[in-house]
Specification:
Layout (H helix, E strand, L loop, with lengths): L1 E6 L11 H8 L4 E6 L12 E2 L9 E2 L1 H14 L7 E11 L2 H7 L4 E5 L9 H6 L5 E5 L8 H13 L10 H9 L16 E2 L2 E2 L9 H19 L14
Parallel strand pairs: 1-2, 1-6, 5-6, 5-7
Antiparallel strand pairs: 3-4, 8-9
Bound molecules: ligand JDE.
Length: 241
């Protein structure tokens, strides 16, 4: 998988050299190229923003540097594996585990990280005439730029690429325990069996696989009902017994 990022803060993506993702990069399972949007400006101050037409607070990212950066990305792309453009924005469609699953099989993803109040809307409009464009939101809150959102999305996607996660069994387990059955994860424990006066639930030490599974399921249902009742309202939700 080929990953590219366009940002005015390319240093944000240094953290991707760490841990699992760094290993996948070093192993050549994925490649990452980060482009500094300011390299596509032509004025002395390397300006990427301007005041909004129609008035209002804050600044908007100018379209021209984005156009040139995307021209470069498209010119270097493999014609048989066209890129998808991902634009993190609070007004995007929700980025979910299902979206991450689908994007994990894409050959080439480009993340456009906006700042200020956003990017001139013509950038997404023009880009959509050249490649699939997904405006995606991490959640219903605003951060200062698309960089943090892109990092979260990249981590969620890349860990699903075959060979990236050290132990692929955890992906299977996880899909049973959490995301795919639509319930939140049950609580987990490790040694010691007693810590600061608190015991690990005895069923987990019993060796009874059926009872362990039933306990975990009940915990997941109770936690989901308490913390995320919205997850139980869906037509495809597991429902409580
Ligand atoms: C991404 N969930 C949240 C923020 C923004 C007021 C202030 C800022 C591309 O346009 C953007 C991007 C971002 C950064 O991303 C997020 C985000 N998923 O905050 C704004 C909009 N209104 C605009």
């Amino acid at each position: 998988m080929r990953l590219e990022v366009i940002s005015i803060f390319p240093d944000y993506f240094g953290v991707l050299q760490l841990s699992l993702i760094g290993k996948a990069l070093a192993d050549g399972l994925i490649s990452l190229d980060v482009h500094d949007l300011r390299d596509y400006t032509h004025d002395r101050h390397r300006t990427t923003d301007d005041t909004p037409y129609g008035g209002g607070a804050g600044m908007v990212m100018k379209p021209e540097p984005w156009g040139e950066a995307l021209d470069d990305v498209l010119a270097a792309a493999d014609p048989s594996a066209p890129p998808m453009l991902i634009m993190p924005t609070p007004s995007g469609r929700p980025f979910t585990q299902a979206v991450a699953d689908r994007l994990a099989t894409a050959p080439h993803l480009v993340f456009a990280c906006g700042r200020y109040e956003g990017i001139d809307a013509r950038v997404a409009q023009w880009a959509a005439t050249r490649m699939p464009v997904l405006e995606l939101s991490l959640g219903d809150y605003v951060v200062n730029g698309g960089e943090v959102a892109a990092l979260a999305m990249i981590e969620a996607i890349v860990r699903l690429v075959p060979g990236v996660l050290g132990n692929p069994v955890s992906l299977v387990e996880e899909s049973y325990a959490a995301s795919s059955d639509g319930l939140l994860e049950y609580p987990v424990y490790t040694k010691p069996p007693t810590w600061r006066g608190m015991d690990v639930p005895p069923v987990l030490l019993s060796g009874h696989h059926g009872q362990v599974a039933a306990w975990r399921r009940a915990q997941s249902e109770a936690i989901t009902a308490r913390r995320r009742p919205d997850l139980l309202d869906h037509p495809d939700a597991p429902g409580l017994p």
